[in-house]
Specification:
alpha/beta
Length: 307
């Protein structure tokens, strides 16, 4: 059985249907990655199983989800009843586990004033270049006062370790990779400098000290982590929260270059006038209006503090 608790003015428990859930989640993600037409129907089926039984207890306009097990791999924003999706009703955020709340840093609530932006690190292979990521980083840096932009060879792990502790907003537009068997080896790829290989692993992140309101990982598969026993998930997202980031935005699958740039530019513009969870929701809705398939807009999610 699958158990759910809704915590609001009261705490209500539910027993949900957990049979074959892993297979259904896998089918949904495969459909999303392939941009198939049955993605909406599969999302409706998951909504019927996971959300519909508890919907009457969900109030307000904000929803925090603490998933367990395979639920960590679901883009909840894309789940719907066939008429509307969760993103139409709620500003969403997650926590990788309930225990994270013990050390979660509260954000300042201030608009971006200084941004450290990394874009398109030079990995020594032209086939791995991300010109869209570079355009994204340059555009974001130009839109936020007092930004520091590092692209190509300057976008190194050495620079990240040196500069990141001094910025409240950090944006990384680069390649990322999830290692299922060794999740602490999941990594972001920065440019090599001398003997430094440029790979910032999840294990490395746990050793960094940040004072950041937001770390945005505009890279592939940065929001994934191995589902451990109990409520723990090990991965880049949890690592950045532990390192001192109030909130982290990451992705659940390999994302489209063009739609990601559009979404991120809208997201940062929204941050000037609304909380982080609202800012991401509005940006996703804007992309959905142009490219309706969830592949293009539902990969990114916010974890940590929503304000």
């Amino acid at each position: 059985a699958l158990y759910a608790s809704v915590i609001g003015e009261r705490v209500t428990g539910f027993v949900l249907d957990g049979s074959g859930l892993a297979d259904d989640v896998r089918k949904f993600r495969t459909s999303l990655a392939g941009r198939r037409r049955d993605a909406e129907a599969l999302g409706v089926a998951l909504h019927r199983r996971l959300i519909a039984p508890i919907a009457a207890e969900l109030t307000g306009k904000r929803l925090m989800i603490v998933p367990h097990g395979v639920l960590h791999y679901i883009p909840f924003a894309a789940l719907g009843d066939g008429k509307s999706a969760l993103i139409d009703r709620y500003s969403l955020r997650t926590l990788p586990s309930a225990s994270v709340a013990r050390y979660l840093r509260k954000g300042s609530g201030q608009a971006p004033d200084r941004l450290l932006a990394f874009g398109n690190p030079d990995l020594g292979n032209a086939e791995l270049d991300l010109p869209g990521a570079e355009r994204e980083a340059r555009a974001l840096a130009s839109s936020v006062p007092q930004s520091r932009l590092l692209v190509r060879r300057e976008a190194s792990r050495v620079a990240f370790r040196e500069l990141a502790p001094g910025f409240r907003f950090i944006h990384v537009a680069a390649h990322g990779e999830f290692e299922e068997k060794t999740p602490l080896s999941s990594r972001l790829y920065f440019a090599k400098v001398g003997a430094d290989d440029g790979e910032l692993s999840a294990g490395d992140v746990y050793g960094v000290e940040l004072d950041a309101d937001l770390v945005t990982l505009s890279a592939c598969e940065t929001g994934l982590g191995e589902v451990m026993t109990g409520d723990e998930v090990v991965g880049l997202m949890r690592g950045f929260l532990y390192a001192g980031a109030s909130s982290v935005v990451g992705s659940l699958w390999k994302v489209s270059d063009v739609s990601t740039t559009t979404l991120m530019l809208r997201f940062y513009e929204n941050l000037k006038r609304m909380p982080k969870d609202d800012a991401l929701r509005e940006a996703q809705l804007a992309v959905r209006n142009v490219q309706p398939h969830p592949f293009y807009w539902a990969a990114f999610y916010l974890t940590g503090d929503g304000r």
